[in-house]
Specification:
This protein has 310 residues and is an alpha/beta fold. Helices cover 39% and strands 19% of the residues. The chain folds into three domains: 84 residues, Arc Repressor Mutant, subunit A, CATH 1.10.10; 99 residues, D-Maltodextrin-Binding Protein, domain 2, CATH 3.40.190.10; 106 residues, D-Maltodextrin-Binding Protein, domain 2 (3-Layer(aba) Sandwich). This is Transcriptional regulator, LysR family.
Length: 310
């Protein structure tokens, strides 16, 4: 059982700490300034710490108050958001879609407006997370990147990813051998795939290209794909990146793909619980995702690749 102070006292403290004024907090909460002062004093006695330094016309947070305030503010914000989501969900108006941080940032966020165009009465909630969330409690559907094996879930393939060297136009090389003079940008797949011979990394690409005498681990390495993309866009080097995540930059000419040779990556799948399949939120998400990505399998899927000149 949690031993917490009364929620009312915590709300009063949060308002007073945010405004640094008992008077302003009282107006916001529609109570008297005396009531605010009384609630704060009770909370301080309960916690056995002083939360405010009181002056004639203003108050300041103590060290203890500064520790408590941001945590409490975030908790109340999330509490408010959760209640709002419950109300919308009860009315069948919130569709919750989860995917990796990189895919949400690079592919889903730019397309979010099209969801509203298709379903103006619905609210799309995008959850960016690299962990597999509960597809009943925390989301209505997910777009997952992997091998396609998701036991107990409905799995609808979307497209396979490809990985290839990309760079700013000014850094484009004419032959793979010229990469000896380039800074290689890496995305670190982590311990789970570091020794995987199928992992789309520079070592594998250079071997396929028949290029030797290049340190495949040298350069700049990132543990976040978005950071690797940003470094390549900034002209820091040539990255072996997901063509899915840099599709917009390639289409606009911000980045170029100097060599046709690409490596096969994992695939993106739409997945959801069979128990959620007939729910309105899951249905609208499925229709929207298929409309956005169902036709990209031929654009982003495997293609004949010629070997670059060594």
């Amino acid at each position: 059982m949690r031993k917490l102070p009364p929620l009312g006292a915590l709300r009063v403290f949060e308002a007073a700490a945010r405004r640094l004024s008992f008077k302003d907090a009282a107006e916001e909460l529609n109570v008297s300034a005396t009531a605010v002062s009384h609630q704060i004093r009770q909370l301080e006695e309960m916690l056995n710490v002083k939360l405010f330094e009181r002056a004639t016309r203003q108050v300041h947070l103590t060290a203890a108050g500064k520790t408590l305030f941001p945590v409490l503010r975030e908790g109340l914000d999330r509490f408010e958001q959760a209640i709002a989501d419950v109300h919308r969900q009860q009315a069948g108006q919130v569709a919750r879609l989860t995917s990796t941080v990189a895919f949400v940032a690079k592919r889903l966020a730019p397309l979010a407006g099209s969801f509203r165009e298709m379903y103006p009465d619905w609210t799309l909630r995008l959850d960016a997370s690299n962990r597999a969330v509960d597809l009943e409690a925390d989301a209505d559907a997910a777009i997952r990147f992997g091998g396609g094996n998701y036991p107990g879930l409905v799995t609808e393939p979307l497209f396979a990813d490809r990985f290839a060297p990309v760079c700013a136009p000014s850094l484009a090389q004419t032959s793979a051998a010229d990469l000896r003079l380039a800074t290689l940008i890496h995305f670190d797949w982590g311990p789970a795939r570091r020794d995987d011979p199928r992992a789309p990394v520079w070592r594998q690409w250079l071997a396929r290209a028949g290029v030797e005498d290049i340190d495949a681990s040298a350069g700049i390495s990132f543990t976040d794909e978005i950071h690797a993309v940003q470094a390549v866009v900034a002209g820091q080097g040539i990255g072996l990146l997901s063509l899915t995540l840099v599709a917009e930059e390639l289409a606009s000419g911000i980045l170029v793909q100097p060599f046709e040779l690409s490596l096969e990556g994992d695939r993106y799948d739409l997945v959801y619980s069979p128990r959620m399949a007939d729910r309105p939120a899951t249905r609208v998400l499925r229709d929207w995702v298929i409309a956005q990505f169902g036709g990209t399998v031929h654009q982003l899927g495997p293609r004949p690749a010629s070997q670059p000149r060594a």
